[in-house]
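Example 9 (inverse folding). The structure is encoded as follows.
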């Protein structure tokens, strides 16, 4: 189902911190069938946004529409079960005293389905997630990955129109994260279900998203497909948040329509006196010269990151293969592609 979020605000009042603007005018459209990622640092409002879409909380201002229907505004908020939305939480939120079967069956029982029907649906979804052999176990007897599967099974068993996933992989180890990521992607595709997937991990976002929104401080700062966001970040925040290692970024004074950066003169089309200029580690080449000093060559297997220093400023450059400059030597830098930001 298509989801539309219009000028959404959420303001919390807490005794300790006073007024907290968790969401500050969020606008988003998630298309039917898409896996849409919301990416942003901790505290930027991701969970607040999901909770409002799920119906666990009400907006201070703005509207949420699911499948063309108004489900939330300050004076109208449909309860979660009337939205046909399922949520998977970071900590799984399984009922500890219930078996995996009963956990998965729970939403069906609440919905008043007959026993045979519940049985059938739980078996079906357990098969999809390959957890048939775990149905009698309690959450405490399951590994993190198995609990995550049970939580996903519980979320999809009712055929929701929309599934919301709040940092679903953050409690898993690196290997399992890669596997579960692929599985979530496959299940979402197979079911054709619309999904909103929240994460603070940009690598995860890049690899799983059809489209993504980057959030910072309660606002959406950019929306696009992952490569578009990577290639053309909208501002310095996105430029340095998306991509590992992050983009090299410097503030420079514009003199006669150009700036100087480690021996490269780069023309800029701006009326500002100062700009931020950046290049990604793979957008520059180490050359012969004596502008920068090689501080460290960080080996990553088939590629390496060369750490360079010029006075107080640092630069990271990616190289391929086992070669590369010697630590302690002086080199030059050829910037092949750059990005200009006016803030
Ligand atoms: N119930 C609440 N009361 C007060 N402040 C809250 C509450 N829930 C979240 N916040 C604050 O709102 C901001 C956004 O939180 P959250 O949506 O959980 O961020 P994220 O999920 O991106 O880490 C944070 O500053 C957080 O401390
Ligand atoms: Mg959160």
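The amino acid assigned to each position is listed next.
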């Amino acid at each position: 189902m298509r989801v539309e979020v219009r000028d959404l605000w959420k303001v919390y009042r807490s005794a300790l911190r006073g007024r907290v603007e968790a969401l500050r005018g969020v606008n988003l459209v998630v298309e039917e069938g898409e896996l849409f990622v919301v990416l942003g640092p901790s505290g930027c409002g991701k969970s607040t946004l999901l909770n409002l879409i799920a119906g666990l909380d009400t907006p201070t201002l703005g509207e949420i529409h699911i499948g063309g229907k108004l489900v939330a505004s300050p004076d109208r908020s449909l309860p979660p079960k009337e939205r046909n939305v399922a949520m998977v939480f970071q900590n799984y939120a399984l009922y500890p005293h219930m078996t995996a079967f009963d956990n998965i069956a729970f939403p069906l029982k609440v919905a008043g389905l007959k026993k045979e029907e519940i049985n059938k649906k739980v078996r079906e979804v357990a098969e999809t997630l390959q957890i048939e052999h775990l149905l009698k176990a309690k959450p405490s007897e399951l590994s993190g990955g198995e609990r995550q599967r049970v939580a996903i099974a519980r979320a999809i068993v009712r055929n929701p129109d929309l599934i919301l996933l709040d940092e679903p992989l953050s409690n898993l180890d690196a290997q399992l994260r890669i596997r579960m990521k692929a599985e979530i992607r496959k299940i979402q595709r197979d079911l054709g279900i619309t999904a909103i997937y929240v994460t603070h991990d940009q690598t995860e976002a890049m690899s799983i998203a059809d489209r993504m929104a980057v959030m910072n401080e309660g606002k959406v700062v950019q929306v696009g497909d992952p490569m578009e966001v990577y290639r053309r970040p909208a501002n310095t925040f996105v430029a340095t948040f998306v991509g590992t290692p992050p983009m090299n970024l410097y503030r420079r004074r514009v003199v006669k329509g150009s700036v100087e950066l480690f021996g490269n003169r780069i023309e800029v089309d701006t009326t500002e006196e100062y700009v931020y200029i950046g290049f990604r580690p793979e957008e520059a080449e180490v050359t012969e010269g004596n502008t920068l000093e090689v501080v460290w060559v960080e080996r990553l297997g088939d590629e390496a990151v060369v750490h360079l220093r010029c006075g107080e400023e640092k630069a990271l450059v990616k190289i391929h293969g086992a070669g590369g400059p010697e630590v302690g030597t002086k080199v030059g830098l050829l910037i092949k592609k750059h990005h200009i930001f006016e803030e």
